Fold this sequence. Notes:
Layout: E1 3-8, E2 22-29, E3 39-45, E4 51-59, H1 65-81, H2 86-102, E5 112-113, E6 115-121, E7 124-130, E8 134-139, E9 142-145, H3 152-158, H4 164-169, E10 189-195, E11 201-205, H5 207-210, H6 215-224, H7 227-240, E12 247-253
Antiparallel strand pairs: 1-2, 2-12, 3-4, 4-5, 4-6, 6-7, 7-10, 8-9, 8-11, 11-12
Helix pairs in contact: 1-2, 6-7
Amino acid sequence: MIRWLLGRGSQRGNGTGATVAPEFVALTDVGVKRNENQDAVLAKRLPDARLLLAVADGVGGSDGGAAASQLAVGWLEWGVSTTADAAAGLSKAYASADEAVDGLGSGKRKPATTLVAALVDGPQVWIANVGDSRAWIMGDGGLRQLTEDHSWVADQVRAGRLTPEEARTSQMRNVITRAIGTGDTAAPDLTGPLTLTPGETLVLTSDGLHGLLSEAEIAAVIASDELEDAARRLIQMANDAGGPDNISVVIYRAP
């Protein structure tokens, strides 16, 4: 089942009744081989006009991965909405999400989730991340990854023991080293504030997408398509590549 979230800018038309393209879009899809979508996406204007974007990828299979990801984005929205300071709000939100997801269950298959978020306030953006979902920025210099994966293969690449190509096909590529709900304090990596220039694009993805598509493929779609078309096309490309996992993408283009 495909779930969409679309958002439009402050100007709804150009005086002629023409529709303004959405400034953000979020899409999550179950993929080809899974029976349940355990990803969750968030793309929402908060009451103070800030924009909150997020992707969460549940861990734990049938033992609660979907509940973990949904709970995490819910606590993320609460924490950020109730705190004016961006960095403090994100830190509080991640701590609350970690505690809430930690209470879902116990045992070897205890639910957990990744969580990557972007908080946009005018031209400024803050990025927070736990796990191996990713945030990227697309501008004149191409596509640049803003987050570092918390995963076993990413650690090996950083240590020079694996190449990025080897990491993409490793049997250990799904082993994450930091997650929301593991019982430890899942402090996020925080980046910001970064200043977005008009036309720059934020992209958030779960590993069901970036694990199958190269940076060059993602960049080509973002550069050539409107947001809705780009999101649909990226999901289709991941499914065409086998779609072994749930697939999520959130895209925002600075006005």
